[in-house]
Structures are given as structure tokens and as C-alpha cells.
Amino acid sequence: MSDVILEARNIHKAYRMGAAQVSVLKGVDLKVNAGEFLAVIGASGSGKSTLLHLFGGLDRADQGSVLFQGKDLTRLGMGGLNRFRNRDAGFVFQFYHLLDELNILENVLVPVMAGCSVGAWLSCRAQARIKAQDLLGRMGLKDRLAHKPYQLSGGERQRVAIARALINDPVLLLADEPTGNLDSATGNSILEVFEQLNRDGQTIVMVTHDARIAHQATRTIQLVDGKIRQGLSEPNLS
Ligand SMILES: Nc1ncnc2c1ncn2[C@@H]1O[C@H](COP(=O)(O)OP(=O)(O)O)[C@@H](O)[C@H]1O
Ligand SMILES: [Mg+2]
Fold first, then answer.
1. 37: nearest Cα among 190, 233, 215
2. Cα 29–221–191 angle (5° rounding)?
3. Which numbered ligand comes closest to the C-alpha of 22?
4. Of 37, 54, 124, 183, which one has the fewest beta carbons inside 10 Å?
5. What residues line ligand 1, using a CB cutoff of 6 Å?
6. Rounded alpha-carbon distances, angstroms, from residue 102 to 65, 109, 110, 145, 173
């Protein structure tokens, strides 16, 4: 039997907009196994980002629970939740969210700095820099370390964001429309990076509205009417 890394149990989430309440997730049940590359597809507005934020401990469900390695995220205190977000989960977003004031090496080091005290940072800095350089090298960016994000193309920025997501060796890599801002050739090259990471053992959950790119994943599910539908039965989602 496979190891379940992440489990969603009967998740409900609604947003209040003034007097109106919008129900987005209406009972999501899902298990993510170690070593999977899972794609969650759904139309725009179907709740993909909402779901991913819950998986990453960035938001809380109204009802139901998210278990990471068997532990309920909602029961973690603030320290435990911060550790989970910083160490166990890595995030890649559509718009990269890099810091323009920092060069790309520094951007990749941000999660290491955020995760340790000043004393610990001084002692682990040299090792962290070597690791960040190695990750950026694997992303084809070894000659760009001193460049600022705005000096890079979209695909290169996303590679920096992937390196940043991996710097603390996350158990789970979460990606929200990682190719959504890229042309199709560049998007494909980013997907190849995810595929290679998955072949090397990285567990990945990617959400996307694009059913074509979801075919790269090892399993695909759909978010429809606030619930999970197994398989890929409706090719046209946009
Ligand atoms: N913070 C929020 N406040 C109010 N409504 C929200 C908020 N975030 C998302 N929504 C609404 O919830 C629905 C799902 O959003 P989202 O999870 O971003 O969908 P997707 O990522 O699939 O496009 C949309 O109708 C969106 O407008
Ligand atoms: Mg979204």
C-alpha cells in the first residue's frame, strides 16, 4: 500500500462577499500518495487555488480537515503551522512572486533565512548558498546568480521560483498554474522540470485549468461543482 502524504477529508470552504455567501468547496475528499505527480484540473473559479491554499496551510477550511502525514493541520499551533509551510511544503505560483530587490541567489535563500534564527543563519549560510547554487545550476541558471528577477524571462523566473520552493527539501511541492503566464514552449519546459523532479521522487500537486498540461501528471482529477471527480472525462474546460 502506498504512503498517504496528504489527505483532505470532507473539506468545505465558502467566501462571504457582503451579504452573499459563495460556496466554493462542498465536500472535497482526496488522498495524495508519496511519489505522485497529481494534477487537479478545473475551470477558472472552480476553487483550485482555494484548495491548494488549504493544502499548504495558507488558509483554513470551514469544515473538514487536511492531514499531512496523518497530522491535522488545523490542530498545529502557529509554530507548527509555520514550520509546515516553511519546511514541509514548497510553493510555486503563476506569477512567480520573486522579490525584485534581491538577486536570484538571494531569492532562493529567503525560505532558509525565514526558517532559522539569526544565530542559526550565520552558521548555515555557507552551506545554504552552496545548495542554492546547485539548485539554480540544475535549473540552468548557474551563470545568472547575481541577476535580479526583472532581468530574467518568465520561464527563467519560474525556474528560480522552483529552486526557491525546493531549497528546504519539501515533502510536498504545490504548484498553482505554474505555466499559466508562459507561452506553450516555455510552459512545456517547466512541466519537464516537474516531471524530472517527480522521477527523482518529489511528490507534486499541481492545479491548472489546462487539461492538456495535466496529461504530464501521473494522476489527474477534476474539481467540478465544489467536489472531486476522478479521471479526465471532460476535455474542454476553458
Ligand atoms: N478571498 C476571497 N474572497 C471572496 N471570494 C473569493 C476569494 N478567493 C476566491 N474567491 C472566489 O472563490 C471562487 C474560487 O476561486 P479560486 O479558488 O481562486 O478558483 P480557481 O483557482 O479555480 O480559479 C471564485 O468564485 C472566486 O471569486
Ligand atoms: Mg486559481
1. 215
2. 125
3. 1
4. 183
5. 15, 17, 22, 24, 42, 44-50
6. 37, 10, 9, 10, 23
Element containing residue 189 per DSSP (H, E): helix 184-199
Angle at 93 between CA 146 and CA 174, to 5 degrees: 110
Residue-range domains of the chain with CATH: 4-230 (3.40.50.300)
Task: Give the chain's end-to-end CA distance (angstroms, integer).
Answer: 36
10-residue block means of pLDDT along the chain (238 residues)? 89 93 96 96 96 95 96 92 94 95 97 84 88 96 97 96 97 96 92 96 95 86 92 50
**Which atom of ligand 1 is the closest one to the Cα of 44?**
23
Rounded to whole angstroms, how far apart are CA atoms 15 and 25?
Answer: 10
Ranges assigned E (strand) in 87-210: 89-92, 172-176, 203-208
User: pTM score, two decimals?
Assistant: 0.94
CA of 47 from ligand 1 middle (Å) equals 6
For position 80, what pLDDT does the model report? 93
* Residue 79 identity (one-letter amino acid): G
Cα–Cα distance for residue pair 107/110, rounded to 1 Å: 5
